From TrEMBL:
Protein's name according to its UniProt entry: Uncharacterized protein
Organism phylogeny: Bacteria, Bacillati, Bacillota, Bacilli, Bacillales
Organism encoding this protein: Lederbergia citrisecunda
Keyword vocabulary terms for this entry: Membrane, Transmembrane, Transmembrane helix
Transmembrane portions of the chain: 12-35, 47-66, 72-91
Domain of life: Bacteria
Length: 114
């Protein structure tokens, strides 16, 4: 029973989840880039996450999954670099929005601005 709970569903959901995450980040990256909702390199950060995934998958399949049956943990680990850049871009953008909003009377969610 524990093999079923831990093993088989992970084998199915992990690749599906990674595919949805990679394609979703690619779509988000394109939307952020086109909408220009972020400035500078921050605008490219979500796109880096999606593009790395799209570039990594064929490489993983040809050089690691077909010969060994397992993806390369190194390539998956390198994927954390675009994620770190995305996190920093969001954090620094949120900080700049916060600095802009403290200059005036900005209402909070649900507030009336008084």
């Amino acid at each position: 029973m524990s093999k079923y709970i831990v093993g088989y569903e992970v084998e199915f959901f992990y690749p599906v989840g990674a595919l949805l995450l990679g394609v979703g980040m690619l779509m988000l990256g394109i939307a952020v880039f086109v909408a220009r909702s972020l400035t500078g390199w921050h605008r490219m950060a979500p796109l880096f996450v999606g593009v790395y995934y799209v570039a990594m998958i064929p490489f993983q399949i040809v050089f690691f999954i077909i010969p060994n049956g397992e993806p390369s943990p190194i390539l998956l680990g390198i994927w954390s670099i675009p994620w770190i850049l995305l996190g920093y871009a969001i954090w620094s953008s949120a900080s700049s929005f916060e600095r802009l909003s403290t200059g005036g009377n900005v209402s909070t969610a649900g507030g009336n601005g008084k």
